Amino acid sequence: MKKTLFLLGLTLSLFADKIVVFHAGSLSVPFSEIEKKFEAKYPQFDVIREAAGSRACARKITDLHKKADVMASADYKVIDNLLIPKYAEFNALFATNEMVIAFTPQSKYAEKINQNNWTDILLKPGVKVGHSNPNLDPCGYRSILVTKLAGIYYKKPDFYNKLLGYGDYYSSGEENTKKVIVRPKETDLLGLLEAGAYDYLFIYKSVAEQHGLKYIELPPEISLKSKKYADYYKQVSFKVTGKKPGSFIVKKGAPMVYGITVIKNAPNKKGAELFVSFVLSPEGQTIMKKNGQGVINPPVINGKWTENAK
User: Fold this and answer.
1) pTM score, whole prediction
2) What pLDDT digit, counting tens, does each position of 211-225 carry?
3) Contact 182, 133 (CB under 8 A)
4) Residue 182 near residue 130, CB atoms below 8 Å
5) 191-211 residue pLDDT tens
6) Where are the domains of the chain?
7) What is the 3-state secondary structure (H, E, C) of the chain?
8) Which of 131, 235, 305, 310 has its CA 20 to 30 A from that of 102?
9) Which fold has domain 2-96+257-309?
């Protein structure tokens, strides 16, 4: 019986219309659940998800010209800056998050670190930290913005330079490998943290909770969580690579907002629209909240959103 059901499922998947979804690594867990619920509701579709840093996802579309139906970003501005208007017509703002400092029981000074002393702990000799590549992943440049905000909040103006010291922008390979580990996206760093390759990770709260990590919850002035502190966040900025080689986009501190869109030349436009509608639906929002993310209810949609997708 089980073999029959397996073969039936395999046969259905072979004939199902594929919906290719490029999405931020931090959306992997909730989107896995959304995929299952969506396919149960619409068995004629087969969702194919591909996780990467949000900017890397956009580059696959703009630079590598890979075919995709949907793009979901951990920073809605990635869609605004890299995809609209040539590759997408709208941007649906649907979820929120916040930055934390994650660690394991094996991390150096794990029993002593707290919200008040984490900047001192991270600067201690022998302590290693990890963050994702800011040119590929919003979590990377948000990690840098957090260190800059921490310097202001804790009145430690040299904290960013002492810990990371990249200057105005990051060039791959320039990190102090004795102190810092960098990988393309934040989820690439989880296994290394759990294996003890380094001690502390700048990561989204939802991801830390999904993977059962200990974490330091940061003050709202630092965590990039609250609209209330939008002006405070604007005090810091960092440059990331732009659309053309040698160009840059300035990323200012801002509350964390996720965005999702349908790609203009989507091979499966109808399926893409249905998938995005499901993500934005009450059922989709419930799944996001269950996995540790805040939601924007109702979602804020900027641009042209087709009638048959509503």
Assistant:
1) 0.86
2) 999 999 999 999 999
3) yes
4) yes
5) 999 999 999 999 999 999 999
6) 2-96+257-309, 99-252
7) CHHHHHHHHHHHHHHCEEEEEEEEHHHHHHHHHHHHHHHHHCCCEEEEEEEECHHHHHHHHHCCCCCCCEEEECCHHHHHHHHCCCCECEEEEEEECCEEEEECCCCCCCCCCCCCCHHHHHHCCCCCEEEECCCCCHHHHHHHHHHHHHHHHCCCCCHHHHHCCCCCECCCCCCCCCCEEEECCHHHHHHHHHCCCCCEEEEEHHHHHHCCCEEEECCHHHHCCCHHHHHHHCCCEEEEECCCCCCEEEEECCCCEEEEEEECCCCCHHHHHHHHHHHHCHHHHHHHHHCCCEEEEEEEEEECCCHHHC
8) 235
9) D-Maltodextrin-Binding Protein; domain 2 (3.40.190)
Give dist(CA 50, CA 55) in Å, integer.
13
Whether residue 10 is predicted with pLDDT greater than 90 in this model: the reply is no
CATH number for the domain running over 99-252: 3.40.190.10
Tokens of 294: 């805040």
